[in-house]
Amino acid sequence: MGKNALTEIKCTLEGYIGQKIRLKANSGRRKTVERTGILEETYPSVFVVKLDEDHSFNRVSYSYADILTESVELTVFNNNNEQIPVKYVKTSQ
């Protein structure tokens, strides 16, 4: 199940490459970081987001397991500026 879940998340994100996203990530000790950027690339184990804000770094990467465990929340903005949450929902068989 674990491998299939990560593959499903990766396939979902591949459809959103180039679109604006907002991510909310746990950074430890009850701290959350919220950033916006463009989903730039997906790789076999991680995805890369090019950040809008001016930070000491331009890109961040997270694993698909971060979405599965909900330590990272992704929201995609479509062409009509509607927000689409990206989550893994286990389908019952």
**Overall SS class:** alpha+beta
**Cα-based radius of gyration, to the nearest Å:** 13 Å
Main sheet: strands, sense, barrel: 6 strands, antiparallel
Number of strands: 6
Q: What is the CATH level 1 assignment?
A: Mainly Beta
Q: Helix and strand string, N-terminal first?
A: HEEEEHEE
Mean pLDDT: 86
Number of helices: 2
Major sheet strand order: 4-3-2-1-5-6
- What oligomeric arrangement do these chains adopt? single chain
CATH architecture: Roll
Q: What portion of the residues fall into strands of 2 or more residues?
A: 35-45%
Tally of individual domains: 1
**Residue share in helices?**
10-25%
What low-confidence regions span 5 or more consecutive residues with pLDDT below 50? none
InterPro entries: Protein_Veg
Pfam families: VEG (PF06257)
GO biological process, one term: regulation of DNA-templated transcription
Protein name: Veg family protein
Topology:
Blueprint lengths: L1 H13 L5 E7 L5 E11 L3 E6 L7 E5 H5 L3 E6 L5 E4 L7
